[in-house]
């Protein structure tokens, strides 16, 4: 019951993350997605992000992280190039997907809201984001599944075991595209494990000098869709059993 991730004052424990990611993984399997299929994630740093990533990997699928600020052209390129069959996206950016969806291989769309995992105050957060700050442009994605609905449906399903090997692809991590179109770097499960192990050794050097704090807390202002924020922050935090405080907008840190 240690806190795993905190966002906007809401704490998600490791046990809660385990249950939610298992439910979401089972839901993904129920959509006909099989080992090796690509699933895109297009969200800022919110609690749904680590749940989605854990679920995708638990189902034996491959994560395709996408910058939520991408233009329609950039989004279309990445979805087509990766061959993504599903996408989990925050409603704030759904209008971008709407413009290109039919030109991509995506068959399953899951739409999250800022307040999905914030408990009772989530309704207030959604109201403010939509009506006061007007951060959600009008959108229409017929046949989409709300994130909370996918979790609820998945909770009634059984996750089928998937054998994942070290050389299986965990992530298709795209470059920034500064010298041309964005290119997908293939990251195997062994690559991620090696990177996290390297970071653990580096962090533990500091523990030897100053001692390990009782409540290890990380601040994650860098976006999780970026490889640095993903591995050096989120994954090392989980490896060490720490609490990762997610910052949706780094300008508000």
TrEMBL record:
Gene3D superfamilies: 3.40.50.980. Pfam families: AMP-binding. InterPro entries: AMP-binding_CS, AMP-dep_synth/lig_dom, ATP-dep_AMP-bd_enzyme. Coiled coil: none annotated. One of its GO terms (molecular function) is ligase activity. The chain crosses the membrane at residues 216-236. Keywords: Ligase, Membrane, Transmembrane, Transmembrane helix. Residues 1-249 form the AMP-dependent synthetase/ligase domain. This is AMP-dependent synthetase/ligase domain-containing protein. It comes from marine sediment metagenome. The lineage of its organism: unclassified sequences, metagenomes, ecological metagenomes.
């Amino acid at each position: 019951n240690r806190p795993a991730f905190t966002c906007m004052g809401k704490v998600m424990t490791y046990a809660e993350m385990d249950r939610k990611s298992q439910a979401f993984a089972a839901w993904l399997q129920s959509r006909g997605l099989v080992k090796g299929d690509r699933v895109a994630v297009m969200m800022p740093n919110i609690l749904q992000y680590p749940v989605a990533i854990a679920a995708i990997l638990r189902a034996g699928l491959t994560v395709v992280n996408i910058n939520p600020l991408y233009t329609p052209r950039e989004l279309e390129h990445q979805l087509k190039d990766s061959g993504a069959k599903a996408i989990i996206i925050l409603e704030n950016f759904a209008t971008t997907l709407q413009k290109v969806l039919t030109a991509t291989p995506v068959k399953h769309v899951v739409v999250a809201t800022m307040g999905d995992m914030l408990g009772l105050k989530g309704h207030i957060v959604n109201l403010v984001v939509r009506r006061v700050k007007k951060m959600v442009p009008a959108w229409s994605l017929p046949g989409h599944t709300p994130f909370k609905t996918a979790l609820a449906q998945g909770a009634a399903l059984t996750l089928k075991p998937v054998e994942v090997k070290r050389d299986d692809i965990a992530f298709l991590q795209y470059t920034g595209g500064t010298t041309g179109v964005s290119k997908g770097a293939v990251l195997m499960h062994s690559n991620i494990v090696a990177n996290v192990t390297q970071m653990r050794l580096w962090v533990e050097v500091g523990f030897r000098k100053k001692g390990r704090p009782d409540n290890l807390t990380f601040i994650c202002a860098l976006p999780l869709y970026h490889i640095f924020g993903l591995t050096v922050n989120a994954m090392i935090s989980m490896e060490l059993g720490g609490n990762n405080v997610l910052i949706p907008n780094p300008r508000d840190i």
